[in-house]
Structure formats: C-alpha cells, structure tokens
Amino acid sequence: MARSAREATPRVGAWARACLTLVAVVAIDQAAKQAVVHSLDRGESVDVFFGLDLTNTRNTGVAFGAFEGRGRSWECPSRWCWCC
Predict the structure, then answer these.
(1) How far apart are CA 11 and CA 16, in angstroms?
(2) I need a labelling partner for 76 at 20 to 30 A (CA). Which of 6, 26, 48, 63 fits?
(3) How many Cα atoms sit within 13 Å of 13 on the Cβ side?
(4) Which ranges constitute the DSSP H helices of 1-84?
(5) pTM attached to this predicted model
(6) Is the model's pLDDT at 16 over the cut of 70?
(7) Is there a contact between 36 and 54 (Cβ–Cβ < 8 Å)?
C-alpha cells in the first residue's frame, strides 16, 4: 500500500532534523578539538571548573587507548569481533 504525501512529510522532516543535529554535533566537536590543539601544548591541562580538566593528549589506540602501540596488528581480530 502506498503512503500518502501527508504521511511521508513528517518522516522527511524527522530525517532532516536528525541529519542537521548530526552535522551540528560533529562541527562543534571538531571546533572544540581545534581550539584545544591550538591553545594547549601536548600534555598540558587546564582546570575548566571543579572536577573537569581539559588536557591535550593523543589517543593512538582503537578506543580509549585499547591496543595502544600495537600498530595495525589489531585490525584483523577486531574485524572478527565486530562481525560476530
């Protein structure tokens, strides 16, 4: 059964809002990263407010430093984990 134009319009609007939200979040994330890279030396920390410090670090691991320093050897096993 075909959908009417009236039923399809809210779906299109919802997808448009979702895409705009995604673009905004990615843009804010990248702008924040660039601000940190250009204002803090590597390893330097700044106390933003109580309990929150901003530190310029590099993550060379897959996620949160997992498999750090192992080069590309993690790729094959991790692909199997994601497939399962």
Answers:
(1) 9
(2) 26
(3) 6
(4) 5-39, 75-83
(5) 0.54
(6) yes
(7) yes
